[in-house]
């Protein structure tokens, strides 16, 4: 099972027109920028310099054959726009332009010229301006390049869906055609009876050993050995299906009969980079996948609960969070699930830190993605689940009015760290199929 993380694979090329001042530094500049981006965490294919249509075509074919996520062009002088356009016909990925300063080179003019053209074509691009050591340029470039690889990862993603979405939660129903067209993932139906049958067939001894390992990592346990062993059997059966179908995320229609039966699977799979949404929410699973890819860490699947007097708000679900999301390991309690009083879930207050919250749902003609950043602060066990207490920079009344006015759904996926900028860049790249909603 592949680890979920974003490592942009990019091509770098310097563009110029031979007559122009600065054109002679094209090969060295391409190498220099390639090294900068490698040090910043990218895998780089250096294409050298492009100064003729034939060179543009050859470089485009090389980049396409390598299946790069994006191309970084560094203009070192003015250049003909058709160089990039010829490249585009061979390799139609996202483009980043990094023109170098130079009063007589015309590099900035050439960049404005091509971005003008690409804007009319509707082709995704980003531009920065500064030397190759400019920290702000590098940061902006990283946001765009991570967004580009996010787009490619989502277009290849498979979301496993077992059971059905919860009756009365219409917002969680996916539009499969629109999801594929706008964002990229396909849905792989999983036969729930077969999943449960496979779980029953798993060896007791293996499940017991895994359960004992889980108990050893918790602060306390108030569930029976039988319930714990069954939860581990379900986890193992799900893990087998994930490997069989090559799934990137999953969701199971757990409410109400499977409550407590799959919660530990959610926690354990999250630690392996496989997000798992509750209640058959395919849209939520996709949102969790976005956050997992961008943050590299497990995420919370939550409902928006009540505000507190200090203008913070509590988010939580029944208790399916990765143990790594707990503020203190000693606070992790293994208990039967609320409402149904069955199975096993892990309840604990969530750890503090910067967070990004997403709500993804289909509209009639597009997908809409609401994004807001905040700060998770210390939370008490005010709800038997994994309460996350969030403070927003905006007044909470404004945030709540925004939620109501935009008609946002009730499932909020939470990832640690602020990744709103990458998500905004990703929405720009994917285009009109996704409406980004921000406060």
Automatic annotation (TrEMBL):
Domain L-arabinose isomerase C-terminal: 310-431
Keyword Isomerase: yes
Family matches, as PANTHER family: FUCOSE ISOMERASE, L-FUCOSE ISOMERASE C-TERMINAL DOMAIN-CONTAINING PROTEIN
One Pfam match: Arabinose_Iso_C
Protein name from the UniProt record: L-fucose isomerase_2 domain protein
Sorted UniProt keywords: Carbohydrate metabolism, Isomerase
InterPro entries reported in the protein's UniProt record: Ara_Isoase_C, Fuc/Ara_isomerase_C, Fucose_isomerase_N/cen_sf
Cellular-component GO terms for this entry: cytoplasm
Record field: transmembrane: none
An annotated GO BP: monosaccharide metabolic process
GO molecular function: intramolecular oxidoreductase activity, interconverting aldoses and ketoses
């Amino acid at each position: 099972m592949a680890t979920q993380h974003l490592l942009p694979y990019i091509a770098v090329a310097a563009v110029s027109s031979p007559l122009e001042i600065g054109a002679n530094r094209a090969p060295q500049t391409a190498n220099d920028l390639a090294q900068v981006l490698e040090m910043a965490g990218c895998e780089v294919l250096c294409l050298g310099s492009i100064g003729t249509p034939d060179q543009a075509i050859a470089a485009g074919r090389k980049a396409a054959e390598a299946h790069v996520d994006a191309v970084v062009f560094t203009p070192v002088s003015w250049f003909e726009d058709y160089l990039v356009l010829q490249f585009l016909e061979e390799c139609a990925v996202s483009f980043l332009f990094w023109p170098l300063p130079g009063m007589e080179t015309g590099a900035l003019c050439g960049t404005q010229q091509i971005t003008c053209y690409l804007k009319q074509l509707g082709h995704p691009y980003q531009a920065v301006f500064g030397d190759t050591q400019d920290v702000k340029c590098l940061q902006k470039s990283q946001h765009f390049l991570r967004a580009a690889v996010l787009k490619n990862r989502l277009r290849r993603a498979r979301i496993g869906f077992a059971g059905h979405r919860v009756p009365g939660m219409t917002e969680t129903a996916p539009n499969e055609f629109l999801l594929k067209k706008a964002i990229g993932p396909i849905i792989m139906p999983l036969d729930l009876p077969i999943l449960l049958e496979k779980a029953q067939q798993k060896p007791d001894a293996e499940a017991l050993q895994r359960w004992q390992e889980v108990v050893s990592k918790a602060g306390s346990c108030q569930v029976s050995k039988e319930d714990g062993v069954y939860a581990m059997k379900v986890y193992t059966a799900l893990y087998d299906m994930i490997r069989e179908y090559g799934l990137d995320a999953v969701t199971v229609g757990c409410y109400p009969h499977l409550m407590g039966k799959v919660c530990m699977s959610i926690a354990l799979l999250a630690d392996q980079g496989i997000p798992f949404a509750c209640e058959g929410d395919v849209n939520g699973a996709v949102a969790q996948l976005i956050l997992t890819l961008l943050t590299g860490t497990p995420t919370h699947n939550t409902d928006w609960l009540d505000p507190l007097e200090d203008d913070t708000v509590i988010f939580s679900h029944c208790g399916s969070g990765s143990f790594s999301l707990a503020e203190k390991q000693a606070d992790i309690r293994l208990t039967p699930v609320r409402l149904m009083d069955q199975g096993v879930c892990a309840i604990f207050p969530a750890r503090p830190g910067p967070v990004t919250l997403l709500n993804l749902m289909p509209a009639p003609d597009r997908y809409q993605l609401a994004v807001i950043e905040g700060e998770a602060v210390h939370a008490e066990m005010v709800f038997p689940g994994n309460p996350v207490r969030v403070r927003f920079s905006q007044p909470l009344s404004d945030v709540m009015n925004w939620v109501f006015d935009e008609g946002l759904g009730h499932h909020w996926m939470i990832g640690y760290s602020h990744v709103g900028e990458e998500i905004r860049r990703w929405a720009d790249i994917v285009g009109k199929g996704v409406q980004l909603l921000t406060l």
